[in-house]
Write a structure and sequence with these properties.
- With 534 residues, the chain is an all-alpha fold.
- The protein is built from 23 helices and no strands.
- Helix 3 runs antiparallel to helix 5, helix 6 packs antiparallel against helix 14 and helix 20 crosses helix 21.
Amino acid sequence: MKPVPTEEAGPAGQVPGEIAKPSGHAWYALAILFLVYLVNFVDRQMITILAPDLKRDLGLDDADIGFLYGTAFAVFYALFGIPLGRLADSWNRVRLLTVGLTLWSAMTVVSGFARNGAMLAGARVGVGIGEATASPSAYSLLSDLFPRRLRATTLAIYSAGAYLGGGVSLMIGGLIVDAWDRAYPDGGMVGLAGWQVAFIAVGLPGLLLALLVATLREPVRGVMDGVPTEPAATPFRDFIDELLATIPPLTLISAARRGRRALAVNLLALSLAAGAAGVLAVWTGAMLQWICVAIGYYAVFSWACSLYHRDRPAFALIWGSPAFLATALSYGCAGFIGYGAIAFAPVYAIEVIGASADRVGLWVGGGCAASGFLGVIVGGRLADRLHKRHAGGRILVLALGLAASAAPIWLAFGGQGDDDISAFFHFVFWISVTNFFFSSTIGAAAATTQDLVLPRMRGTATATLLMSTTLVGLALGPYTIGALSVVTGDLGFAVVLALAVVPPGLALLYVAWRRVPEEVATVLERARASGEPV
């Protein structure tokens, strides 16, 4: 896609879209996309509250649940997020999101008919691939529907759906399972267990929501930044190129197309990834964990090499940007702690404190839903206010969210009340505070990375940001905490130990704080300096 001529900037250097007011359709789109992200996280997180029933009926253990919840989902979500992010940059984003929502909702329904762990794993892969369409499409759509001055707030409202959905999944999952199993202990006429009904019940609304998504209008790409951009001439050819560059073993075809040297470098990276996975597998005994992680990181390397050859401007603004990389990796550090703490919160409340599953679903789920929703809204508004005062002001919200998490995590997982009831509500309060601080960072991270690229690259930039929080946060955080819990015999202590990633995360944010103002101001110049048309 190429920028097309547009009006010159206004008196204060503002482009026309910067002073525009969002239309009624823009707010309608935001409401629909919020619901999409809510459904996204309900489907994604449902497995945590259903874990005891899944272990009982499918013969799984905690390691299997951790693999299904974290690594397997995360790797496929991240890998397919790259080519689908590219497609979001070049094709109709409304259509892409409609297809993706239909796929992951259908795969959630299919999860309810799983008869063994392999079938459930296959369904989870489908959920991950479908959900990979959501944020690249939504971030890009919202950035073209709302002016830059409202970007962090808008993306924060959209992202609030994730935290609300994560909490709602615990509540409705527990309620459905409890009510169904009490009413139909033998499965009733349909012969389904409560956990199967729960998967089906949360998947079906997504299929209906896909019809609403299809009613959205595709906005002109880049208009809010004063750079209206023509649609790509060959969007699916670019998508296939991204698949070849990202998905092993197709990556070898992509590398071979670029020459013998590129193929040799790719094979070396594959060998190093395989070797590292082998060492870690022997050390930890978690073969599938490290095979999947190795595939993920090798695929990212392959994609970055391909992007360098195919789209030098995009490579320069993403992989060649210290501000972008520092922001994305620091957000990955936040995800490492956040995903791990939230993943093990129900387990800690049930196994350590002794609370019942229905109480955990209601209070932990409700507390995290409310605090997450509030956190993203407050964080987004604060990020936009600070951005008005300083070009890198949003980075301060990221730093606050990461640093302020230490105390509530220690209080949640390291201290209890005088009895079981007070211990439980002590935990609920502090895990909710923890979730508030982590959720406050998403709007700032999303808006910062969107500002660091050209409009045609926003889907790719979103996929890269989510790749960091997924492969660093979701693929490593829950597993590391689980492994530390096995070694130490103390789940609470294991969660607290995960705070070791806070100092490197803050160091990365210092780099971002120093670099963001200059890099935002020189986006077009740096893209042109790559030597290829932007």
